[in-house]
Amino acid sequence: MSEIIFWRHAEAHDAELGQDDLSRKLTVKGQRHAERVAFWLDRNLPQQCKVFVSEAKRAQQTARSLPRKNKTLAELNPDATPQDVLAAVGWGSQTEPIVIVGHQPWMGESIHWLLMDAVAPLTVRKGAVWWLQSRPRHATAFEVIVRTVITPDLL
35, 119, 127, 140: most buried, per Cβ within 10 A? Predict the structure, then answer.
């Protein structure tokens, strides 16, 4: 059994003219959010897990909120593909849970690929809550956002 936890970096400042995307930092609000999520993760993650982080400053700052050792991988930078990411972290061959701190769009694409490429239909655990939200993207299209997924054992 393998476990993977995707953690998107918190809110970052917009890029300034000529600024390297990897050097963008978290906003004050982003830092607060990273700390809140890290507190929850630290309470709920097993003692042994591997944390992998993009080279981007905003991802590094987000990961530093979690008091766990981490490893920086260029394969998790914003221009990565789901295949790059999953191969870089050894998905499927790891025995410990994996936490990946990174970016859109590869994060959403990776989750989609893992859920949609499964051999069997998605299983919802007993007592679990899946909170989804839709929002319009274009005149005729919308996207679905997973607001949260929680099981009783995490509460």
Answer: 35
